[in-house]
Amino acid sequence: MDAQTVSTCVVVAGLGVSGAAAARGLAQGGERVVVLEQRERPVPPELVKLGVEVRFGDPALPERTELVVTSPGWRPDHPLLLTAATLGVPVIGEVELAWRLRHAGAPPWLALTGTNGKTTAVRMLAAILAAAGEHVRAVGNVGAPIVDAVLDPGDTTVLAVELSSFQLHWSTGLAPAAAAILNVAPDHIDWHGSLAEYARAKARIFAHADTVIYNADDEWATRLAEPHRDRTRVVGFTLDVPRPGQLGVVEDLLVDRAFVADPVSSAEELASLGDVRPFAPHNVANALAAAALARSHGVPAGAVRRGLHTFVPDPHRIAHVARVREVDYVDDSKATNPHAAAASLAAFHSVVWIAGGQLKGAEVDDLVRRASSRLRGAVLLGADRERIAQALARHAPNVPVLEVTGDDTGVMDRVVAEAARLASPGDTVLLAPAGASLDMYAGYGARGEAFARAVRRLAE
Question: Are residues 302 and 232 located together in one domain of the fold?
Fold first, then answer.
């Protein structure tokens, strides 16, 4: 950090992955660092060697603190952060810190955010960039801590940066070479306080970007991109035929009418729908966003096709588990909010829906209303299952609904057995919970694994 930002004491709030990386980077730069952590946990030996002080419990803001670097898990209304604001002490996040710590000639950032699809899209982007011969690192909300990537770039030529709303809330100076918003829908309202505040956090990715890329089929993403048209290049992507300045779909092809010599009269084929795996409309949108970011970096069309074709999706994202008695069982445990569940349900025509968990303040009426014609039954579990049951009663009264109570390890076996009873040949039993998993499981991955094990036992 330059002399103007050097402080007597820099506080790092949180000792998780991003907090430890921030403390390490600051200490290596010569700062006096105090880490505040609410619960006892092991202190990484490297922080001890660097002289980082760690205080556990609920400590007060140290005297002469001139900067607070907060971890994403700390809510804006945390007393420590409110105290800092009252005293006029700046509060930033690890991502903003990384941006400030960049060296001259640092690799450019290609950044993206969205309510759903972030990790898939950033991994698609990384695959495309690698296919073009770039030395790429996926960082931020996925992969390595971004501070580590900035301070030790090695042979990295470009960063594929996934950013959450939590990270963007504390970021004001980011100026990526290109930035994309995949979609915006109600999520983490309990953290941000309202959809407007959540969207405002997402919008920060566009504030200083050289190229703004947005989902032209998404109302919020379109609205957030609009103010930047007079400032910089703005590119849309759509599942429809693209207009000049957009990427989109023509028959079974992904087509670019933005990063071409004459967007009005020419277009370039990037890939086919068959190159997008797993195939679903929302995953095509992810591929178009990744392609747009890559094209803004000068990647040729052939590399887009090669990257998408070789991309291997992460688990629990529309993953086909098995076919049992002519019924397909699909694990989309990563659908942890109503927007993600809606996209997942839209990919199938006849569904027995497994849903439930923690809704995090989100509403499900619109989701149920839009999916009602596809539903052949629903099996509900988890903390907020009753709210989903009520929405089904209002908007899909003819759909059979079963609630499975309990939080023991055998719940998912009962859920899958009930779903199998409701399903007919040709149906898809779809785990797309619309809620988080921590009421019953260690994470969405554990929930998805429980579903897959239950399906395999059913098949046996």
Answer: yes
